[in-house]
Amino acid sequence: TSVISCLTVQNSFGVTSIEQVSDRVFTQQIKSILVDFQPHYVKLGLVASLEQLQIIQELLSSYKIVFDPVLFPSLGNFSKPLFEQTDFHRVIKEFLQSCFLITPNETEFRYLFDVPEREILTELFILQKLKETKIKNILVKSVSTPKKERKKHQFFQLQNNNHKKTLEIYYHQQKKEFHGTGCRFTSHIIRFLCEGESLSNSI
Q: Of the ranges 21-35, 155-169, 189-203, which one carries the lowest mean pLDDT score?
């Protein structure tokens, strides 16, 4: 079951246009689903505004939230974040710390944690960035490696008040890029979580 935050014009090649739904309709969608059943996990993707984020916090804070932030579509003509409201960066960064799991890609991680493009995302560097946060679990997807045709996913988990890297997955890039693969990856993680698997096993 899904809640629509935006109407998008997109295909497998990327996103070309977006239009936010009203806060009233967004709220009614969430409330309607919660009347129907109580979810084990809530997956967030494209949060279109500070107002939508506030609604999510008011209605869904008691659930385990898996946030796959859609800030920069992997393909399309967006060189800047989809939404640039005043305070959006600060508020969404604070919100991350209440989530069960966050799954940004490399571009989104750099935006959220103010990392310049010239900085290589090594394990040590990511850990240093996370050190001052209260983030529980983070999977940084599609991180660049010295071999251009090869990328990796890096998973870090908070244990005993210290961040500890628990998993690293290397993969070869497809010759043709497709939009939305990261979203499907996160959805499969939640599927395994709902079946009772541990977070590490689900990833």
A: 155-169
